[in-house]
Amino acid sequence: MEYVPRERVRPLTVALSVVSLAIVFAAAGGRVPRSMVPGAPEWFIESIPHLNVAISAAAIATIAVGWRAIRRGRVDRHRVAMVTSFGLFATFLTLYLYRLVATGGPQEFPGPETVYQFVYLPTLAIHILLAIACIPVLYYALLQALAYPIAELPRTSHARFGRIAATLWLISFSLGIVVYGLLHVAY
């Protein structure tokens, strides 16, 4: 069953990537006024990092399950795991951006300057770059899965893009957990 016309996979990938990244950069760059997001109790806003680390761990697990499932030929299980991973990613990003806008910017690093410069910033930078790079690759793999019947997917680049997306996702989510640990556990 075809959900996305095949000839629309590339243009949709570009459009979704541009819109998604524009939203992310607008929120991260302080271009979204606080009045644009609904208010929430302080306890909820403060709980978002803790919730997001749990979401990250769950996403790592679902990506691993999906990767293992497809290697064993369990296509239906793979599909469920990867769609779940995408939902977790979208939830994580929504909560993260909401908190960013609601609090007026990123959280300051509370630890020593040397850890900030030589551990925290490089880890954060790699995490962010991989998350950004992942978005178009992820959309392309997802849209291909929606555009082709399962029997035809092996003749497409879905598997190659899927491996790249999964690898970027796994590393980015793992580094996000390290960033959380530096911000909320170590200091």
UniProtKB/TrEMBL annotation:
Membrane-traversing stretches: 12-30, 50-68, 80-98, 118-143, 164-183
Keywords of this entry: Membrane, Transmembrane, Transmembrane helix
Annotated protein name in UniProt: DUF420 domain-containing protein
Source species, domain of life: Archaea
Keyword match Membrane: yes
InterPro entries: DUF420
